[in-house]
Amino acid sequence: MVSAAAQAGVVAACVVLFVPMGLAGWHLSRNKVLFFSGALFVSLAVGVHLSPYLPSVPHLLATSFFVPGPGAASAAASSGTSCVPFLHRVSWSDAASAGAAANGLGGGTARTWSWPPSLASACGFARLSRDDASLLLNGSWVMVAGDSQARLLVLALLRLLLDPAAAAAAEPELFRRHSDYRAAVPARGISVDFVWAPFESNLTRLLREDLRLAPRVPDVLVLGSGLWHMLHVTDAASYGDALASVAGAAKSLRSPLPVPPPHMFWLGLPHLVNHMLNTDAKRAHMNGTMLRAYDHEVDQRGLVRGDGGPFLLLDVGKLTQGCGQQCTADGMHYDGEVYDAVLHIMLNALVIESQQRI
């Protein structure tokens, strides 16, 4: 937004610049050198008086001609452009075998992730400690709804917020088959809900009915689905129609709220390793062609930002591909380090969005 002072400066500049130049042109049209000199003098005078209200030339160039590239994150940070598009640019490397047990691997080498140092420095991306994450989510209600992928994200969140013994004690209850789950971090007033919602119709009902009738909406809302639809329906167009309903319900939930709307995230589909899937039905229906068709519907149905949607995409597919086949035992569910990366991308996005809302 242009400030009132800048607007007043522009109006005054127009008066000072064009009135004398018009008069000079009328009186001095026969003497082009004298006219040019007078015009240059007036222009320089206006420039001196107007300069306090205008951005510097380098800043103007940076904001007007910003093009993502190798140094894009640095340019984004310096020009105030959001760093959100760079959140998924993580690197994967082998970790010591000691980390394998913590991430559910059977042994050997585990994989760990990080942001490149230059990107982390330029945009301020960081893995949050338990204290920092608790402070960020202080007093918040976090709701995650979906299938087993969503459940694994909740596990990553609990492992970050709770001490190891408490997180381990919560895991069996969280993974009760086809059930909801609720946890709390009383010291920080944080509530965490997992809602079992494997189909898109479950998510639409949650948005249109359950949350609309609730006295409060979540501060952070993470939704995701598609695996059950792919297995049991196997129709990308039908999935897209269902996603459009989810998008419409999410937009209607946001619009009438007297308070800031929830931060909304969509949990993308993982990369599927077809030959590792553990049933014939999964191997038949959950192949690469079908996965690409389902991902295309996510991009095209007004669900995620960039397509006019309300959800910021958590690109699980990109992260699982980066980690590789060694990070999955069944070709669908991945090790804890993957969902830790998803979680920290979400938390860093919350930091950025919270700053932008101030």
Automatic annotation (TrEMBL):
Transmembrane regions: 6-26, 33-54
GO BP terms in the entry: xylan biosynthetic process
UniProt keyword list: Membrane, Transmembrane, Transmembrane helix
Primary localization: membrane
UniProt KW Transmembrane helix keyword: yes
Any one GO cellular component localisation term in the record: membrane
Subcellular location: Membrane
Single annotated GO MF: acetyltransferase activity
PANTHER family tied to this protein: N-ACETYLNEURAMINATE 9-O-ACETYLTRANSFERASE, PROTEIN ALTERED XYLOGLUCAN 9
Name this protein carries in UniProt: Pmr5/Cas1p GDSL/SGNH-like acyl-esterase family protein
Organism the protein comes from: Panicum miliaceum (Proso millet)
